[in-house]
């Protein structure tokens, strides 16, 4: 392990901003832990249906404030894409070549998920699994893919939005919500916010890449202003307090994104920018940096397979013939929360098995070289200068 840590640290270019990779890793892990904590598969009459502890335990709503970290991912995505596109132009790379490379890296792992779950779905239907259970499981796998579609679309228009001020898409979200909720407009209009809402942190990221929002004062303004606006919208404008969807709720802040979700994302972006300094100091330690680098190498694999890992453990538990607390029971009390926390390490082991099986779809291998050797070899001696130590995570 010490040798692995040493090789990763030695291969990292000295000008690499390790804190940016740390923010991406934290965003991905936040989504994973959030889904594992607020998604329950309840065994009912031989089948499974989805439930949420936030439906029964609203006092745990602050959990959604901690683990709904998509705005940070879009912030980092905008920053990395803008810098990557600028670098590609400087090297004479065409837009098509640049976009093709980024889309392949983003969607190659998706193909593996779709193929595997196509086979699993067919097998479940043939073996007599109820259609409601099949629908529940497949929906949990496919629902996170909307995020990749939006992220891919924003990546494709990076040259067009790289200098767009975040206030413009924020104004679109504001007017859409005003028409929907204030003037009784059609509900379908809210889907405009799927693009406009996530364009706000993405444009913040591109502004960051241009040298903007780098001061601590700007970060504090985002944090305090976003938090105050969100509190006002929840307390006086009737927006839900939860930053994730809750079954049975009349309105979801996330599906589609509301103004409250966007202002909350601004607060998260401010907090993320304030963390850059402490993260840079922490990641001078080779062991801490190695952990961040390894997560980034497999960020898409972790994101795409974490729900499968949870469902694999849940369905395997059905073989015991008992309704296991925190796994199959209704999430209606603190006991369920404590039991679910105890299951998290088991979910992590299942995710590790998925990672070992499917990581190659995200990480290109070379004959005779393991992943870490390829990723961590000293760039100055064995790779062109533009090649990075952690290719999958550098953008």
What is the molecular shape? globular
Helix content: 55-70%
Protein structure class: mainly alpha
* Individual helix count: 18
Instruction: Provide the number of structural domains.
Output: 1
Relative strand content:
under 5%
Largest sheet: 2 strands, antiparallel
Distance separating the two termini = 26 Å
Question: What order do the SSEs take from the amino end to the carboxyl end, as H and E?
Answer: HHEEHHHHHHHHHHHHHHHH
Overall mean pLDDT stands at 88
Radius of gyration: 22 Å
Count of extended strands:
2
Low-confidence stretches: 365-395
Strand order of the largest sheet: 1-2
Provide an overview of this structure.
- This protein has a two-stranded antiparallel ribbon with strand order 1-2.
- It is 68% helix and 3% strand.
- The chain has 395 residues and is mainly alpha-helical.
- It has one domain.
- The two termini are 26 Å apart.
């Amino acid at each position: 392990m010490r040798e692995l840590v040493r090789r990763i640290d030695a291969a990292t270019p000295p000008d690499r901003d390790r804190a940016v990779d740390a923010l991406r890793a934290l965003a991905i892990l936040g989504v994973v832990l959030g889904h594992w904590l607020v998604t329950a598969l309840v065994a009912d009459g031989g089948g499974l249906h989805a439930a949420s502890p936030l439906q029964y335990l609203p006092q745990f709503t602050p959990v959604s404030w901690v683990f709904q970290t998509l705005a940070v991912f879009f912030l980092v995505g905008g920053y990395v894409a803008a810098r990557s596109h600028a670098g590609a132009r400087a090297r004479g790379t065409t837009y098509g070549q640049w976009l093709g490379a980024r889309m392949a890296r983003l969607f190659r792992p998706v193909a593996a998920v779709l193929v595997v779950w196509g086979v699993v779905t067919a097998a479940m239907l043939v073996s007599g699994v109820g259609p409601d259970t099949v629908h529940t499981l497949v929906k949990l796998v496919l629902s996170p893919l909307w995020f990749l579609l939006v992220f891919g679309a924003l990546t494709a228009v990076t040259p067009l939005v790289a200098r767009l001020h975040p206030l413009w898409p924020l104004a679109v979200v504001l007017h859409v919500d005003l028409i929907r909720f204030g003037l009784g407009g059609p509900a379908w209009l809210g889907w405009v916010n799927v693009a406009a809402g996530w364009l706000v942190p993405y444009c913040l990221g591109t502004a960051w890449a241009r040298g903007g929002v780098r001061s601590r004062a700007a970060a504090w303004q985002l944090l305090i202003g976003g938090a105050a606006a969100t509190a006002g919208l929840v307390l006086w404008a009737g927006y839900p307090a939860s930053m994730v969807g809750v079954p049975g709720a009349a309105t979801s802040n996330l599906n589609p994104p509301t103004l409250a979700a966007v202002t909350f994302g601004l607060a998260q972006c401010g907090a993320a920018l304030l963390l850059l300094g402490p993260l840079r100091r922490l990641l001078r330690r080779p062991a801490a940096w190695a952990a961040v680098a390894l997560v980034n190498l497999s960020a898409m694999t972790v994101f795409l397979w974490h729900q499968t890992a949870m469902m694999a453990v849940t369905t395997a538990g059905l073989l015991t013939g008992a309704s296991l607390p925190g796994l199959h029971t209704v999430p209606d009390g603190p006991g369920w929360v404590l039991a679910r926390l105890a299951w998290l390490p088991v979910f992590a082991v299942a995710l590790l098995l998925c990672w070992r099986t499917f990581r190659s779809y995200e990480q290109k291998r070379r004959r005779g070289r393991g992943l870490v050797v390829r990723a961590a070899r000293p760039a100055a001696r064995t790779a062109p200068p533009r090649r990075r130590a952690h290719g999958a995570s550098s953008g």
